[in-house]
Amino acid sequence: MATTNLNIRIDAELKKQAEEIFNELGLNMSTALTVFLRQAVRSNGIPFDMRLDTPNAETIAAMKDARLGRNLKEPFNSVKELMDDLNAED
Fold this sequence. Notes:
By secondary structure, the protein is mainly alpha-helical. It has two domains: 1-53; 57-87, no CATH class. Helices cover 54% and strands 0% of the residues. The protein is elongated and about 65 Å long.
C-alpha cells in the first residue's frame, strides 16, 4: 500500500492535549489519525467516541468507600425497598 503525507494546521495547545490522550491510549498521532480515518471510511461518517473516563471527586470517593467496605447499604429484598430508600429524605 502506498503512503502519502498529510499536513494539517491545528492549534498548538489542542495538539498537545490530543497527544497526551493518545499516548495514554498507547497511540501516536499518526496511528490515532489513521484509526480515525479508517473507521470514518468504514462507517461512512464520524465513527466513534474514544476518550478516557475521568471520574469526578464524588465518584472517586464512592469507589474508595466500596473498596474499603464503608458507607454501604444493606441488601434490599425488593425493588420497592430500594426505591423507598433512594427516595427517603435524609
